[in-house]
Design goal:
Blueprint lengths: L11 H12 L4 H9 L2 H11 L11 H12 L5 E7 H11 L4 E5 L8 H11 L4 E4 L5 H6 L2 E5 L3 H8 L3 E6 L6 H8 L12 H5 L6 H28 L1 H4 L9 H4 L4 H22 L1 H19 L7 H20 L6 H28 L15 H24 L1 H6 L4 H4 L1 H17 L7 H7 L1 H19 L2
Parallel strand pairs: 1-2, 3-4, 4-5
Length: 467
């Protein structure tokens, strides 16, 4: 049987390359030269630098269970894979199922006809083969029977015309819904922050400004999806150890890693094309956003508190980008309010994860410098930041410039208790373990939060138009 796509739903070579780039990014410059010498040489070089931990790979449990039954019935099991010998041997040790292992070496990429030749040299012409791709067709044609694992309907029909199919293990659905989950379309709600400058500037806003921000929203959303995909690929190892993140499409093997890379690059291309329709300055802001999110994934997310500061910056960054798209100045009050608010929300996100770990009986998060005992510090820090945001809002309402701008500024004072209630509600939900991974998404979905936000919008409208 094959390994990649068959015994495991992932691609061990791509995983090894991602791990190597994560540890030694400069190796990317060398990889092109390794490929020029052939895929066998490329695999040899990567395997010499990376020891893949196969215990965490997403295995096809139904197929593995079937193999256990076949071995108990006396069948000889041979792992025949194009993966490098080092990976194949590690898989063999992990499962203790295989009588023999055939794998690629420094000079032989064991795929297609070469794999068939190696199988026949070991077993002769009497064998059954389990695989998943069109590269396995020459082997199936020579086999007595076929086992289809995760094969497409088209490939399954083709195999049935050339040999007997003794068993089939179809993959789960990987349609639009799976991709929407991988792209985290629900997280696009955070990019509604781009509209904040329009809502805070009543005079001089034209329909053209709304169109520009809508285009900017599309650009930021696609860029965000690209960074989410790349971040998931980067965090495969830690996500598979997380009680909830292990179910993400790439960590679980529902989507292939190579398709994720391709879709991420496509999203980035479309995002920058849309940003060019807004302005050159906005395009530069989008570049900065991608750089900051990349730095967050590569560096800052592993440092305690630095990650929440970066998240707060990225939230505030969206507000500034929205102001640049329509040439509306962000006041110091709005900037300060945004910083404190989003710092508190970023701490909500981190505390929610720690509460989940604590409920699972774990003490620390993998890949992040946080422990569950840190909650005694993070709780008051996050609540204090939310109170600072309310104080900043109160000081803003009390300024003469605000009184001159609104018809009746007294309505705005009613927003202070609304903000206090909203922040308190978020933190209570977090303590109870009811908080979504992202508080912005939770606030949009939560009925109580929506009612508070609608109420505050009405208060702003009353303050502006009703004397």
């Amino acid at each position: 049987m094959d390994l990649d796509g068959t015994l495991t739903s992932t691609d061990t070579l791509v995983e090894s390359v991602l791990i190597l780039l994560k540890r030694q990014p400069w190796r990317l410059l060398q990889m092109g030269f390794w490929l020029l010498a052939g895929r066998a040489h490329f695999k040899e070089k990567v395997s010499a630098l990376v020891e893949l931990d196969v215990s965490g790979l997403p295995w096809r449990s139904d197929f593995v269970d079937w193999l256990v039954v076949q071995r108990a019935a006396g069948r000889r099991l041979v792992l025949a894979t194009a993966a490098h010998r080092q990976i194949a041997d590690a898989v063999s040790r992990h499962w203790s199922l295989f009588d023999d292992v055939l794998a690629s070496s420094a000079t032989n990429n064991l795929k297609g006809p070469r794999k068939l030749k190696a199988i026949q040299a070991l077993l002769g012409n009497r064998f059954a083969y389990a695989g998943d791709s069109t590269a396995d067709l020459p082997i199936w044609q020579a086999a007595e029977s076929a086992v289809l694992v995760g094969a497409s309907p088209q490939l399954s029909a083709q195999v049935q015309t050339i040999t007997h199919v003794e068993a089939a293990f179809p993959s789960g659905p990987t349609g639009l819904r799976t991709w929407l989950k991988a792209l985290r379309v629900h997280q696009w709600l955070k990019n509604l922050l781009l509209f904040v400058p329009l809502f805070t500037a009543f005079e001089g806003v034209q329909w053209g400004d709304w169109m520009l921000v809508i285009i900017a929203f599309g650009a930021f959303s696609l860029a965000a999806s690209a960074t989410y995909v790349l971040n998931d690929l980067w965090d495969l190892e830690s996500d598979r150890r997380h009680p909830r993140k292990r179910l993400r499409p790439f960590a679980s093997g529902a989507l292939s890693l190579s398709s994720g890379i391709a879709v991420a690059l496509l999203c980035l291309s479309v995002a920058f094309a849309l940003s060019a329709l807004v302005s050159v300055g906005f395009s530069a802001m989008l570049v900065g956003y991608v750089v900051l999110t990349t730095l967050y994934s590569l560096v800052f997310k592993t440092y305690v508190l630095m990650d929440v500061l970066m998240l707060a910056m990225l939230y505030t960054y969206r507000v500034i980008a929205g102001s640049l798209a329509v040439a509306i100045e962000v006041t110091p009050w709005l900037f300060a309010f945004s910083v404190f608010t989003f710092f508190s929300l970023a701490l909500v996100k981190r505390c929610a994860e720690l509460v989940l770990l604590e409920s699972a009986g774990r003490k620390a998060s993998h890949g992040r410098d946080y422990r569950t005992e840190d909650l005694v510090v993070l709780w008051p820090l996050g609540i204090a930041a939310s109170l600072c945001a309310v104080v900043v809002f109160g000081l803003y309402v009390a300024t003469p410039a605000t009184e001159a701008r609104y018809a009746n500024v007294q309505w705005l004072w009613l927003m202070a208790p609304a903000l206090l209630y909203w922040f308190s509600r978020l933190w209570i939900k977090t303590v109870r373990g009811e908080m979504h991974d992202d508080p912005i998404v939770f606030a949009v979905r939560d009925r109580g939060s929506r009612m508070v936000v609608v109420g505050m919008v009405l208060l702003v409208a009353l303050a502006h138009w009703r004397a």
